[in-house]
Every structure is written in structure tokens, then in C-alpha cells.
Amino acid sequence: MATTREDPVLLEIRKEQFGTTLVLQLAGELDLASGPQLETALREHEDAESVILDVESLEFIDSAGLRVIYELWTVSRDDGLNLAIVGASGQVRRVMNLTGLDEVLPLADDAAPLL
Fold first, then answer.
1. Does some domain include residue 25?
2. What span, in angstroms and rounded, lies between the C-alpha atoms of 72 and 67?
3. What is the torsional sign of CA 94, 95, 101, 107?
4. What is the DSSP string of 20-63?
5. pLDDT by residue for the chain (115 residues), tens digit each?
6. Which CATH number covers residue 39?
7. Confidence (pTM)
8. Is residue 8 domain-resident?
């Protein structure tokens, strides 16, 4: 008898609301397979005026994951939503540096000043 196994959760998203600011703490991997999770999480909180993507616990990001973040940032600007990325380090920061997105995206070391 064949058994099915559930796909492992590659991206965990923890949500916290501080007034009109939504903080999405990302852990795991942000890539082609998990990108839609992030898009859905943001759509669920359309009442937020500011969004902080905390990527400190993100272990891996590829070009598809960066594309999701870039597109979210572009759409958020057009909609008048402030979006910032905090905690980028290690592999995540290297990929942002290699692609030049560290010069484009609003990056911060810590979320505290943004709250």
C-alpha cells in the first residue's frame, strides 16, 4: 500500500499587528514554491498601512523569492503602503547584494525604529 507524505513547510510566517503596522516574520525558505504563501499573508491584512518583512530567520532565498519581495514592494508603493525589510543577513543579504536589490529595497537592521 502506497503512503502519501505531506510536503514539508518550507516557509513559516508569523504575523504580528502593531496598530496599522503589520510585521511578517519569515523563517525557512522563500522561493518559487513558497512565494505564494507570502503574497497570501499580505493580502489577508490589506488594512495595514505599513508592513515590515522580518527576514532574520530566513535561511534561503532565490531569485523567485526576491522577485516576490520586489513585486510586493512595487505594488505597496503604488498603493501607498510602506514596506520595509529588516534583518537581512547571511545568504539572504548576499543574494540581495549580488542582484543589486540592496540598493533598491528599503532595508533596515532592526524593526524597532520602524514601529
1. yes
2. 8
3. negative
4. TEEEEEEEEEESTTTHHHHHHHHHTTTT-SEEEEEEEEEEEE-H
5. 444 444 566 899 999 999 999 999 999 999 999 999 999 988 887 788 999 999 999 999 999 999 999 999 998 888 888 999 999 999 999 999 999 999 999 999 888 777 6
6. 3.30.750.24
7. 0.85
8. no
